[in-house]
Amino acid sequence: MLDNCPRETHDAIAPVCKSSGSTLSLVTVDLNIRDDKLEDTDVFRLQNASEAVIESLLERRYPSLSQAVRRRIAEFSDGNAGIAILSAQHVGPDTNLAHLGDEGLFERLFRQRKQADDRLLGAAEALALVYSFDGETFDGERAELTVLSEIAGLDVHAVGRAVGELKRRDIVQSRGRWRAILPQPLANWLAKRALENQPALGIADAFWRCGNPRLLKSFTHRLSYLHDSVEAQQIAKAWLNPGGHLSDLRDLSWSSIDIRVDLVRHLAPVAPSAALDLIERFVLGSTLDRLTAREYPVRHPAMSLLRKLAWFPENFRRVALLLSRFVQADLSEGDRNQDTRYLEELFWPVLSGTRAGPEERLAVVEEQLSAPESPSQETGMIALRGMLNAGDFISSHDFSFGGRAIDHGWHPKTLADYRAWYGGALAVAKRLATSDSPLRKAARSAIAEHFRSLWCLGHVFEELEEAAVAIGMAEHWPEGWLAVRKTIALDAERMEVGLVARLQTLAEHLAPARFGERVRSYVLTPAHAVADLAHWETAEDYSHAHQAVIDKARQLGRECGGDLVLLEGLWPEIFGPNAHQATWFGKGLAETVVHIPEIWGFLLDRYEATDDGRRNPVLLGGFLRSAALKDKGLVEGILDAAVSDPILGPVFPYLQAVVGFDEAGFLRLVASIETGLAPPKMHSTRSSVIHEPSPATNTVFGRRATGMMALNWVITHLPPRENIDYQATSPK
Fold first, then answer.
1. Distance (Å, rounded) from C-alpha 660 to C-alpha 656?
2. According to the model, what pLDDT value does residue 693 have?
3. Left, alpha or beta for 224 (phi > 0: left; psi -120 to 50: alpha)?
4. Coil, helix or strand for 520?
5. pTM above 0.85, yes or no
6. How is residue 589 annotated by DSSP?
7. Is the peptide bond before 438 cis (omega within 30 degrees of 0)?
């Protein structure tokens, strides 16, 4: 067997093998197999391997390499196992995964035992400066070979002939009119030689002035793989630094014409510090309203690029604060969800894309949480929630960054790593959750949200128990109680007996006992959450569990009816936006009280004392619903007065709908519309639902237009099914 065997050697040995009585057989391996058929010789062509095969090969030979790095090497190798193995041998932080790494391999791939041809090599170097090029257009403004031939110092037709020869050597591949030198490591080798053989900035200026945006973008795409080239770094810094072509992000716009965003993204792997300085100059020099998605359309590419720049530990703090600034811009607009993943994922223990360790990340969290500004504190909580996350990691991030060996970042490898990571994050969350900080409620919610995954996967049982007990001692914690119940319900069967017992003890400690605690758990917590986790064991199905929560809220209302002092301190929450079962609480209250007018006045005082922007009238509606069953005339009088009452007028249609509609109710609705106290949205009509009123309807309303608005109120403002008991009403 002869490896890399020249044709002449093969032809000399083959007759010996074919001679009479010979016991020899010959296998020759040659990189330059021709299509011609050799006499008495079988020819086999081995095609390039798939990326999956290359990945599998690398996994067996280099198991210490991360999956992300193996995938990038396989992608760059273009199916050439030799190139992949060379690239994988010495992977480090500054390794170029798209580096050929061997002069001898270059000779075999490019020259293929042919005579040295400086003109062909010069043409190949120029062609390799771009990721792809138009190989068929020789004339006109869009003729890319013209630009490349000028850089090569050759006639355009000579370069065209060089493309043909390189294609015959399987160095140039084609798709339609587009050509590209492959594999990428060979193209990078040639491009580096081109930048070394001519003034690099002169080549860059030629591409900038060529007037072909696609070719310019293709040039920077090639540069993105050359971070280990001094000349490529020179170009990237010249364009990104102050005074350069791409030095001001305020000039960039997101459109099919402006490709400068792509140019910045391509140059960032070559000069990461210059790219970070560029984004920092823009972000710190802009007000928050200038950084919103509406005002700055390219913020998403900028935030994605920041995630990549965070790979370097020395950049982490700056990147995190810049991403926080972008997120704060959305928080100022009232949007609490948009683009927060860019920041939160950076603080995940896995798939973060940064080599920064737990100490560095926790330091940034603490810095943000202790900032005097509320927006910084909010982004600090987003980061802290990221550090508390122990499961369901699905990243939205692309981990490729030019030819750099970037993977998923630092992650816990040992039990000690897990305890250090989650123990540190829990300590910060516990401190906030048991303090008088404005972030107290958010910290409690974060611990409850991640309790199950932390218990099952975080290896911080003692720390989690201590935090839960401390929070529960300070104040009843319905979220924590439900989180513990959820963990028991879903994971007890797969858990050690001792751990289950500890959870059950914790659930008993956190369970609501006092009246106010039961109100928080059954009235101020969504019914579905309590039904899922607190009553499912004894209920035949979910509907029974849900009804058990409703019954509990109603029973609490009955208890309160005997002593309204029980609810002292909770009225702002009972009349607040999160009073989920307040309707049923109000019904139970009305069922118990004896002096309805006196209690109604008491409730109105508490309702009026609630902040106008947070008032929730559902307790009042439930109270009137049950009170009407005891004394309908009294409730009719209350509703008559409510039509023009400055406090109840804005919510009168809701109150009337809860009690039910009859002729008097419709007339009150007409009067309510005429007072103008209810919100303007009541005047909207839905043509697909509202139709011409009948003569009977006109008799009731008198004026058709006002009657139509009243009908619209009925259709659009009936409370949700969970808040009222629907009954058949009178035909009137």
1. 6
2. 35
3. alpha
4. helix
5. no
6. H
7. no
Average pLDDT over residues 9-25: 86
* pLDDT 10s digits, 389-428: 998 888 878 888 998 888 899 999 999 999 999 999 999 9
Which residues, at least 6 apart from 334, have a Cβ–Cβ distance to it below 8 Å?
A: none
Pair 549, 585: CB distance under 8 Å: no
Tell me the HSE value of 180 on the side-chain side, using a 13 A CA sphere. 16
Give the DSSP H or E segment for 178: strand 178-181
By the 10 Å C-beta count (0-12 exposed, 13-18 middle, 19+ buried), 280 is classed as middle
Tokens 């190798």 identify what position?
77
Strand 28-29 relative to strand 172-175, pairing: unpaired
How much is the pLDDT for 718?
52
Count the Cβ atoms, other than its own, within 10 Å of residue 650.
17
Q: Which residues contact 484 (CB under 8 A, 6 or more apart)?
A: 451, 468, 503, 506, 507, 510
Q: Judge contact between 643 and 672, C-beta under 8 A.
A: yes
CA-based diameter of the chain, in Å? 123
User: Cα(first)–Cα(last) distance of the chain, in Å?
Assistant: 101
In angstroms, the CA 631 to CA 38 distance is 109
Bridge partners (DSSP) of residue 404 are: 96
3-state secondary structure 319-379: HHHHHHHHHHHHHCCCCCCCCHHHHHHHHCCCCCCCCCCHHHHHHHHHHHHCCCCHHHHHH
- What are the C-alpha distances in Å from 15 to residues 40, 43, 412? 10, 16, 63
Cα separation, 624 vs 640, whole angstroms:
13
pLDDT single digits (tens) 568-590: 888 899 999 989 999 999 999 99
What count of other Cβ atoms lies within 10 Å of the Cβ of residue 341? 17
Task: Give the C-alpha distances (Å, rounded to integers) separating 674 from 234, 653, 668.
Answer: 74, 12, 10
**pLDDT average, residue stretch 51-79:** 80
Residue 320 predicted with pLDDT over 50: yes
Residues 326/291, Cβ–Cβ less than 8 Å: yes
Report yes or no: 484 and 468 within 8 Å, Cβ to Cβ.
yes
Of 276-280, 377-381, 404-408, 719-723, the poorest mean pLDDT is in 719-723
Q: What is the DSSP letter of 250?
A: G
Radius of gyration (C-alpha) of the chain in whole angstroms? 37
Q: What is the pLDDT of residue 357?
A: 94
Render pLDDT for 467-481 as a digit per residue (tens, 0 to 9). 999 999 988 899 999
Q: Tell me the C-alpha distance between 208 and 215, whole Å.
A: 9
Strand 133-134 with 28-29, pairing = unpaired
Angle between helices 478-491 and 497-510 (to 10 degrees): 150
Of 23, 74, 81, which is closest to residue 51 (Cα–Cα)?
74
Distance CA 358, CA 290 (A): 32
Tens of pLDDT, residue by residue over 612-660, are: 888 899 999 999 999 999 999 999 999 999 999 999 999 898 898 888 8
Q: What is the pLDDT of residue 505?
A: 95
Of the given ranges (362-366, 459-463, 564-568), which has the lowest mean pLDDT?
A: 564-568
Q: Are 480 and 471 in contact (CB under 8 A)?
A: yes
Strand positions, DSSP E, 7-155: 28-29, 133-134
| 18 vs 138: CA distance, rounded Å | 51
Contact 319, 397 (CB under 8 A): no
Helix (H/G/I), strand (E/B), else coil: 675: helix
